[in-house]
Write a structure and sequence with these properties.
The chain is 84% helix and 0% strand. It has 295 residues and is mostly helical. The radius of gyration is 67 Å and the shape is rod-shaped. The two termini are 54 Å apart.
């Protein structure tokens, strides 16, 4: 497996998933801020209703209808007051003039008739003005209620939408974070596998090296043994007769100490054994063979 490529690809995937998580997290934070701002600035229904009332109950049309209604009502009140005070007024007007009671009654009847006609006219105006004003006010109140309820519901809907958007982004942020954690775990897994594979290859290389050392040591041991055998084989041994020949009495001389190849061989072997024994005692058999005592 190409662990270098696998680690590079896993790293890129992990970085991409982290970038995605970071983007969703930033968007979720902003959505939370937007919701908190809207929630803190929300209006209660009374404030919304008052705002709608100011807008729809204070129009030029309604103010004109109100003024007409007020003037008509004042006029009716005024003529009614005049009618109620008519006897006193007649008495003040014609008192001491010498008019008879019948004449005063006729004068009062004439003025009452005129005031009654005026009162009827003003009453009709008052009724019409009152109807117009009440109709305008009722329409305006209906509009105030509709607008206030709509604005309040719109405010609630806006808060709900902001809250829903916030919750959605939080969900996406959490999901992308889980993806990031999975990608991070995958990267760690590949890195651990790569480290384990490298350790196994290192151990295999060490075992191979040790085996090569064992083979080399065995070869050296064989070469040492071969060298010893070759040395021993190269020595020349003297031929010994199995049946000695009797010396010629005419030529017998006094015996002397004979030396030759055999004596040399024995001396060499003796010296070699002494040296070999000392080396074996101090260093062991492997060192003795490896160093080659006899060569």
């Amino acid at each position: 497996m190409d662990y270098a490529t696998a680690i590079s690809n896993a790293t890129n995937t992990k970085n991409a998933s982290y970038d995605t998580y970071n983007q969703y997290q930033q968007q979720a934070n902003q959505a939370g801020t937007d919701y908190d701002t809207a929630f803190n600035n929300r209006q209660n229904y009374g404030d919304i209703y008052d705002a709608a009332s100011d807008k729809y109950l204070n129009t030029d049309e309604i103010n004109a209808d109100k003024t007409a209604y007020t003037n008509a009502r004042n006029a009716v009140d005024q003529v009614n007051t005049t009618i109620n005070k008519l006897p006193q007024s007649i008495a003040q007007q014609y008192g001491g003039t010498g008019l008879t009671e019948a004449q005063r009654e006729r004068a009062m009847s004439d003025q009452y008739s005129n005031l009654s006609n005026t009162a009827n006219y003003l009453g009709t105006n008052y009724t019409n003005a009152s109807t117009d004003y009440n109709t305008a006010m009722q329409n305006a109140l209906n509009q105030v209620n509709t607008v206030a309820a709509g604005n309040y519901q719109g405010q609630q809907d806006s808060l709900s939408a902001l809250q829903s958007a916030w919750a959605t982004l939080l969900g996406q942020s959490n999901s992308s974070y889980n993806n990031y954690q999975n990608d991070l775990s995958s990267l760690y897994g590949i890195q651990q596998n790569s480290a384990a594979d490298q350790l196994a290859r290192d151990q295999l290389a060490e075992q191979k090296w040790e085996k090569e050392q064992d083979i080399a040591q065995a070869a050296a041991d064989r070469q040492s043994n071969y060298n010893l055998q070759s040395y021993l084989a190269s020595l020349q041994y003297p031929a010994l007769s199995s049946t000695p020949t009797a010396p010629d009495s005419s030529s017998v001389t006094a015996p002397t100490q004979q030396t030759g190849a055999w004596d040399d061989f024995l001396n060499t072997i003796g010296s070699g054994l002494d040296s070999w024994g000392t080396t074996f005692k101090n260093n062991g058999l492997a060192t003795l063979i490896g160093k080659g005592t006899f060569w």
